[in-house]
Fold this sequence. Notes:
Elements: E1 2-7, H1 11-20, E2 28-34, H2 37-46, E3 51-55, H3 63-72, E4 78-83, H4 88-96, E5 101-104, H5 110-127, H6 172-175, H7 181-193, H8 200-206, H9 211-222, H10 226-244, H11 249-255, H12 261-272, H13 276-286
Parallel strand pairs: 1-2, 1-3, 3-4, 4-5
Helix pairs in contact: 2-3, 3-4, 8-9, 10-13
Amino acid sequence: MWKVLLVEDEVFVRESVREIIAWEELGFTVAGEAGNGGEALEMIRRDPPDLVLADIVMPEMDGVELLRRTREEGYRSRFIMLTCIGEFEYVRQAMEYGASNYILKLSMSVNSLRDTLRKVSTELSRDGGADLVTPEIGEANPQPAAAAAVQSTSAPTSSPITATAASSHSLTRTTADISHPEVRKIIDYIAEHYAQDITVKSMAQYVMMGENYVSALFKKKTGQTLIHYLHRIRVEKAQEYLLHTDLPVHEIGQRVGFINDNYFIKIFKRLTQMTPSKYRQWNKIAQ
């Protein structure tokens, strides 16, 4: 079995990627998961995987920097990059550092990911796993099969991962009628402490339940994952700052709980279809 390391800061995306694929049928096993590039690099140092499936934009250390550091330290793991529309400069850099492929998260499907894994499995078998010789840093990848991984969302066999962008309006209308005591407690906590460090693990401890159970329960009752809900609340608060203050974008991001500027802009754009600066500018024109 080829060992896979999943690196994605958004828990709901990571869980989706892990669960939609029958990994062992394709010759892979998920050997580990990480929430940022720094954590992933330490895991790679301890036990180099054959394949790293990594988001490009993450807090602390992004996917491109993770790939660069991995190559500098001599590790030969294959990389597949997960990216959003508008991050193609990062994709270009990743391909130069020797990434095998990239996949657009918003159009990712079971079939597109499975096809990409089959190709990587073939390459690993041909080249001897993680010990393969990769291009030197800065050398263009001689066989960038990037386009093969991008599947149309209209394909009849596709099963898109739930990570779609949508306008961020008030969520109180959709959660006000939720009466489940533990879910209600989490919603109220997020409303008061959205700017603090909140994770599924911390909320599970807060309501004294198992982490997996809380994750499934919250999604069942609200229709969205806990982290996705937290992001939407933070973006709502950021919208208020953008409309009613002249605070710079990076300070607004920090005030609503995003410690990384790029990550704040990434999530804001995913939920509103525009960057924070464009949102502020657009609303000033509208007024």
